[in-house]
């Protein structure tokens, strides 16, 4: 530690390096990795007959090892420190007659123009470019100018660096503007992660003749695990890609030292497209005492199930790690845009990478188990992809649930971990005389999806609670009444469709701002309009404001998502719970009616503000929290005299459910209305 400089600026000081080498003596200093790590990259760009200049050589063994293995012999080394030049001359004089050491400053070299094929710099640029002061940048420009002068056209400047953002940006901008091809390699690192944090990079700048006019910049990065370079569109993108590699190295170093208190998330991207292929969460369980056999495991989440509470939330993943009985569990989510052959190919693809996330003390050759539900990777079929001007990119997909059931989902890709709409699929029934499809036959054509929508099944727990809220309506039997229901937010249409089908006297008006969603609901979710079901393409705010100021609806339901992800409330948009708008909602609700609101709000202060506003407008307020989800269903009424306790609500729900369970009409046995209402609380 006593050899480290007191400030970054000392790295560029000749006096500091003189003191450094006098104190260190003959021991070689390999701050940026030794020859075995650098060799694979150097072999690509240094040929045996090349004339090589090593700038700021210090007492590194790199030149000697390049000479000794026959990579190159015509090597000139320069440094500004006389002591180290004398030391290195003595060390190589008899062993390496073709290699020389000269006292020379890289800012002002004595060599003729175009003298070298390769200029090799191991940490010299980093030592000079310690800050972005004008004087420092002037020195770096002189250094780059001299390197450019002594290199031949087609020559390579190989700069070994820790790639601090300002260093990388300066080098890439300078040489790309000169028309050079810039490629950045990450060096495979065998150093102790507990001692070193930052990975080493090699910038390869290849000199081309400068073309007058605007020539395209060629910027590339080569990650350590692959040879094929990835093209970058801009200097900023290249710097960001390197920063990601540095973050990953730092993360692996931290994970190798100590258990992580908070869950760590990262994406592993496809090499060809650069798009995320796997999303990993590292979960350390405090309740599991790790041993050799239960310290580390990988859990592959079946396709389509990454949104479930157990896999899609921190608490769920923590519970999964505890129940699996491993000290550290890495969950792996598969992306819908990617293709996967099966569990074996995923294991082969991930086995090397996930070991970099292993907990401290895990033996190097320890077998790490790969776990999953049912031992497979699940089933996901994407039927439709499109883009809406209002909702952005979205997909309609079928996924296999827990068991033999299949579900159809609508996903907005701006929030890909949230299921926007979901419906259960009925198993296809063969026509009379038609044989069942054998298991070994080909899958059905992608032209037409298998099965039909099970309209009797509400997949979303918050939809079940919203329907149960109709028990709050006045009168003995909501089924026999001519109900007028307004639903704001269509999605796949399962909520209004259920009300239409099971409340045979109900007239349902649906307001949906996005016409694309109506098309999706009709084509993919079995939705249809009719005498008792009408969809109005309009902004819900405008539609409510334009209605006559007289009581019209027995029930008003808001199930509309917010397009603004920067707000801590994803449902509804904030404008829908402002007081002046809620007053308008109040005017179109019948005296004994119920206003049902799906509230999804992670901001505690914002949620309290919304609840306070609702209390100001609606004297009677119930809440039903959905277990394992952020959703809270609010039931708002105009008359406090209509207040009922949960037991009474449960009794009304039993009566209503008995009426809904008519002979010949399918009913989901797991849907118990009374359970939905006995858990409500009065606010």
UniProtKB/TrEMBL annotation:
Query: Which InterPro entries is this protein grouped with?
Result: Lys/N-term_MeTrsfase_sf, Methyltranfer_dom, SAM-dependent_MTases_sf
A Pfam family this chain is assigned to: Spermine_synth
> What UniProt keywords apply to this chain's record, in alphabetical order?
Methyltransferase, Multifunctional enzyme, Transferase
Presence of the UniProt keyword Transport in the record? no
Q: Which residues form the Methyltransferase domain?
A: 50-172
Return the SUPFAM superfamilies for the record: S-adenosyl-L-methionine-dependent methyltransferases (SSF53335)
GO terms, biological process: methylation
Q: Which PANTHER family match?
A: EEF1A LYSINE AND N-TERMINAL METHYLTRANSFERASE (PTHR12176:SF78), SAM-DEPENDENT METHYLTRANSFERASE SUPERFAMILY PROTEIN (PTHR12176)
Name of the protein in its database record = eEF1A lysine and N-terminal methyltransferase
Q: Which organism is it from?
A: Eolophus roseicapilla (Galah cockatoo)
Gene name in the database record: Mettl13
């Amino acid at each position: 530690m006593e050899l480290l400089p007191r400030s970054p600026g000392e790295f560029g000081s000749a006096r500091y390096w003189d003191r450094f080498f006098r104190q260190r003596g003959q021991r070689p200093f390999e701050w940026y990795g030794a020859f075995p790590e650098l060799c694979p990259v150097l072999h690509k760009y240094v040929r045996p007959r090349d004339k090589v200049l090593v700038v700021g050589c210090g007492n590194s063994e790199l030149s000697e090892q390049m000479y000794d293995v026959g990579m190159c012999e015509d090597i000139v080394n320069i440094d500004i420190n006389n002591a180290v030049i004398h030391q290195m001359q003595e060390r190589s004089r008899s062993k390496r007659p073709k290699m020389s050491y000269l006292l020379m400053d890289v800012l002002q070299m004595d060599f003729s123009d175009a003298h070298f094929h390769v200029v090799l710099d191991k940490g010299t640029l980093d030592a000079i470019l310690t800050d972005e002061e004008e004087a420092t940048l002037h020195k770096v420009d002189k250094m780059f100018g001299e390197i450019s002068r002594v290199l031949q056209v087609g020559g390579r400047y190989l700069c070994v660096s820790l790639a601090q953002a300002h260093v990388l940006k300066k080098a890439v901008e300078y040489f790309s503007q000169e028309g050079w091809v810039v490629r950045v390699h990450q060096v495979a690192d065998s150093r102790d992660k507990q001692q070193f944090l930052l990975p080493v990079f090699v910038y390869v700048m290849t000199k081309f003749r400068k073309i007058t006019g605007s020539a395209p910049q060629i910027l590339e990065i080569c990650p350590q695990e692959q040879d094929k370079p990835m093209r970058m569109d801009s200097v900023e993108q290249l710097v960001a890609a390197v920063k990601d590699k540095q973050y990953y190295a730092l993360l692996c170093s931290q994970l190798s030292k100590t258990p992580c208190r908070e869950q760590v998330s990262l994406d592993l991207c496809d090499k060809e497209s650069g798009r995320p292929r796997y999303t990993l969460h590292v979960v350390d369980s405090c309740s599991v005492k790790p041993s050799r056999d239960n310290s580390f495991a990988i859990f592959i989440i079946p396709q389509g199930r990454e949104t479930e509470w157990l896999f899609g939330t921190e608490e769920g993943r923590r519970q999964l790690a505890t129940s699996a009985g491993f000290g550290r569990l890495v969950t792996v989510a598969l992306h819908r845009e990617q293709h996967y052959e099966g569990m074996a190919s995923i294991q082969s693809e991930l086995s090397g990478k996930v070991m970099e996330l292993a907990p401290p003390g895990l033996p190097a050759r320890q077998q790490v188990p790969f776990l999953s539900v049912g031992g497979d990777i699940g089933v996901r079929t994407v039927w439709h992809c499109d883009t809406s001007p209002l909702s952005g990119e979205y997909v309609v997909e079928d996924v296999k649930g827990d068991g033999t059931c299949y579900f159809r989902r609508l996903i907005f890709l701006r929030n890909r971990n949230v299921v926007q709409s979901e419906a259960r699929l009925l198993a296809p029934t063969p026509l009379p005389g038609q044989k069942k499809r054998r298991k070994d036959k080909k899958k059905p054509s992608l032209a037409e999806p298998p099965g039909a929508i099970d309209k009797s099944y509400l997949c979303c727990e918050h939809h079940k609670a919203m329907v149960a809220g109709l028990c709050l309506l006045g009168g003995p039997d909501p089924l026999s009444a001519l109900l007028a229901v307004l639903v704001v937010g269509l999605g796949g249409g399962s909520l209004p469709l259920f009300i239409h089908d099971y409340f045979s006297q109900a007239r349902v008006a649906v307001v949906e701002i996005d016409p694309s969603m109506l098309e999706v609901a009709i084509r993919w979710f079995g939705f249809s309009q009719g005498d008792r079901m009408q969809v109005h393409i309009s902004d819900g705010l405008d539609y409510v404001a334009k209605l006559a100021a007289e009581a019209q609806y027995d029930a008003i339901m808001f199930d509309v998502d917010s397009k603004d992800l920067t707000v801590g409330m994803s449902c509804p948009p904030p404008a829908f719970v402002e007081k002046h708008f809620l007053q308008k909602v109040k005017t179109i609700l019948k005296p004994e009616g119920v206003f049902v609101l799906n509230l999804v709000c992670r901001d505690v202060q914002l949620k309290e503000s919304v609840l306070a506003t609702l209390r100001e407008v609606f004297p009677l307020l119930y809440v039903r929290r959905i277990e394992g989800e952020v959703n809270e269903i609010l039931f708002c009424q105009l008359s406090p005299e209509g207040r009922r306790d949960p037991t009474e609500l449960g009794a009304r729900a039993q009566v209503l459910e008995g009426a809904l369970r008519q002979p010949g009409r399918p009913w989901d046995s797991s849907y118990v209305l009374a359970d939905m209402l006995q858990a409500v609380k009065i606010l």
